[in-house]
C-alpha cells in the first residue's frame, strides 16, 4: 500500500501532452543545438548553422499539422482539468503559424545577410538568439495564465534586444538596441505591476478564473482591480507599438540588421497582439467598458500618427526606406487594434478577433515580402534610401513588380474577408455582450 505522501505526490504529477507543445519545443531545442554546434564547427562551415536553424523552424512549423484535429490542453490543475496553462486551439495554431512561418522567412533572409556581413555578425549567437525568440513567441499564444504569458513575452523579447545590437562596431545598432531595451523593460515593469494587482484582487493567475472572479471582487479591492486592468493594458500597448508608446520603432528598425527588422515588424506584432487579445477578451470581458474605448482611442491615434509620421519622412535628408516601413508598421498597428476594440461592443467576438488574426496573416506575408525586396536592394545600396529604388524596374523587373504589389497590399489591397476567420481563443466564462457566441 502506498503512503499518504506517495499518494499526494502522485496526484501532483501532471501528464504532459508533448505533441501540443512540440512547435515551441522544437524551436528551443534547435537553438540549443546550434549554440553547442557553434563551438565545434569550423569557421568556413558556419553556414551549416544557418541551414540547421532553417530546418528547425521548418520542422516546428510542420508540427502544427497534427494539431489540427482538435483542441489540446496541458499543464492543467489537478483538481480542475478545465483550467490549464497551455492550450493549443485554433487561435493558437494560427498565431503559431504566423510566428514560426515569419521566423522561417526571416531566417532565409538572414542566410544571405550573414554571408555578406560575416565579420560584423557572429553567426552562432545570431541563430541561437533568433530561435530562442521564435520559441518564446510561439509559446505566448498558447499561454492561458498570466505567469506563462509574461515568461513567454520575455523569452521572445530578451533575445531580440541582443539581435538588434549584435552588429560589431555599429553605434546606430547599439543605440537602437538600447532604446528597444529601455522601452521593453518599462513595458514589462508596468505589466508585472498590473498583473500583481489582478492577482491580489482575484487570487489566481489563470485567465478563465480571472474572468469569473473579477466580476465579484470585494468592494475594498475594486480600485486595485481597476488599476491592475489599466496597467496591464498600458504594458501591452508598449509591446504593440501603439501611439504614444511607439517612439522606439523607427530607430530600432533602422539600426537592426534588416532581417531582424523584418522579424520584429511581424513576429513582434503577433506577440503583442495575441497577448493583448488573451488579456482583454479572455481574462477581462467584464471590463470591456474600460478597455474597449481605450483601445479604440489608441487605434485612431496610432493610425493617424503612423501615417503622418511616414509622410514627414519626405522632408528629412536621409529618407530611409526602412524607416518608412517602420512608420508603416506603426500605422498598421492601429488597424490591428480596431477589431479588438470592436470586440468590446460586439455580440460575436469571434468575428472581431478573427478579423485581427486574418489581417495579421495578410500583413505578415506582404510586409515580409517588402522587407525581402529591401534586403535585395540593400546588398548594393547600403544606405537603402528611397532614392535607391529609382530605376529598379530596369535592373530587376520582378523585384519592382513584387514591391509594387506588396506596397499596394499595405495600402489596403487586397481586401481580406473575415467570413472564414479563425476562432478566438477558447474560454469558459459567464456570457456577456462581449463574449456571446464564443465556442
Short recap of the structure:
By secondary structure, the chain is an all-alpha fold. It has helices at 4-12, 22-37, 47-62, 90-116, 123-139, 146-164, 171-202, 207-213, 222-239, 249-255, 258-283, 288-312, 321-343, 349-378, 392-395, 397-411; strands at 72-76, 84-88.
Task: Describe what you observe in this structure.
The protein has 439 residues and is an all-alpha fold. It has one domain (15-411). It has 16 helices and two strands. It has a two-stranded antiparallel sheet. Helix 5 packs antiparallel against helix 6. The protein is globular, with a radius of gyration of 22 Å. The protein starts with a helix and ends in a 28-residue tail after the last helix. Mean pLDDT is 82; it is low at 4-12, 416-421 and 427-439.
Amino acid at each position: 500500500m502506498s503512503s499518504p505522501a506517495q499518494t499526494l505526490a502522485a496526484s501532483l504529477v501532471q501528464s504532459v501532452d508533448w505533441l501540443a507543445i512540440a512547435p515551441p519545443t522544437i524551436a528551443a531545442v534547435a537553438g540549443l543545438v546550434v549554440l553547442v554546434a557553434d563551438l565545434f564547427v569550423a569557421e568556413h562551415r558556419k553556414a551549416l548553422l544557418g541551414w540547421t536553424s532553417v530546418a528547425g523552424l521548418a520542422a516546428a512549423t510542420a508540427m502544427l499539422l497534427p494539431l489540427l484535429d482538435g483542441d489540446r490542453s496541458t499543464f492543467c490543475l489537478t483538481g480542475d482539468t478545465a483550467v490549464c496553462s497551455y492550450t493549443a486551439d485554433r487561435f493558437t495554431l494560427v498565431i503559431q503559424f504566423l510566428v514560426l512561418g515569419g521566423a522561417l522567412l526571416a531566417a532565409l533572409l538572414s542566410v544571405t545577410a550573414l554571408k555578406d556581413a560575416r565579420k560584423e555578425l557572429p553567426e552562432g549567437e545570431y541563430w541561437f538568439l533568433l530561435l530562442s525568440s521564435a520559441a518564446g513567441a510561439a509559446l505566448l499564444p498558447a499561454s492561458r495564465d498570466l505567469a506563462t504569458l509574461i515568461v513567454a513575452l520575455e523569452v521572445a523579447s530578451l533575445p531580440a534586444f541582443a539581435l538588434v545590437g549584435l552588429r560589431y562596431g555599429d553605434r546606430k545598432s547599439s543605440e537602437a538596441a538600447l532604446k528597444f531595451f529601455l522601452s521593453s523593460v518599462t513595458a514589462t515593469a508596468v505589466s508585472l505591476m498590473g498583473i500583481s494587482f489582478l492577482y491580489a484582487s482575484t487570487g489566481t493567475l489563470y485567465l478563465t478564473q480571472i474572468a469569473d472572479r473579477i466580476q465579484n471582487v470585494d468592494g475594498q479591492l475594486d480600485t486595485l482591480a481597476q488599476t491592475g486592468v489599466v496597467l496591464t493594458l498600458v504594458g501591452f500597448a508598449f509591446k504593440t507599438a501603439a501611439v504614444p508608446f511607439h517612439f522606439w520603432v523607427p530607430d530600432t528598425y533602422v539600426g537592426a540588421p534588416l532581417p531582424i527588422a523584418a522579424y520584429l515588424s511581424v513576429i513582434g506584432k503577433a506577440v503583442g497582439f495575441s497577448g493583448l487579445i488573451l488579456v482583454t477578451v479572455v481574462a477581462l470581458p467584464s471590463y470591456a467598458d474600460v478597455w474597449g474605448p481605450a483601445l479604440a482611442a489608441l487605434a485612431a491615434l496610432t493610425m493617424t500618427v503612423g501615417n503622418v509620421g511616414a509622410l514627414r519622412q519626405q522632408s528629412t535628408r536621409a529618407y530611409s526606406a526602412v524607416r518608412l516601413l517602420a512608420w508603416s508598421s506603426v500605422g498598421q498597428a492601429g488597424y490591428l487594434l480596431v477589431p479588438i476594440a470592436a470586440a468590446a461592443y460586439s455580440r460575436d467576438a469571434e468575428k472581431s478577433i478573427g478579423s485581427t488574426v486574418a489581417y495579421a496573416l495578410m500583413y505578415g506575408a506582404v510586409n515580409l515580402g517588402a522587407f525581402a525586396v529591401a534586403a535585395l536592394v540593400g546588398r548594393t545600396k547600403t544606405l537603402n534610401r528611397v532614392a535607391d529604388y529609382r530605376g529598379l524596374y530596369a535592373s530587376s523587373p520582378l523585384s519592382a513588380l513584387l514591391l509594387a504589389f506588396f506596397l499596394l497590399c499595405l495600402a489596403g489591397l487586397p481586401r481580406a474577408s473575415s467570413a472564414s476567420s479563425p476562432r478566438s481563443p477558447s474560454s469558459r466564462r459567464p456570457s456577456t455582450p462581449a463574449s456571446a457566441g464564443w465556442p
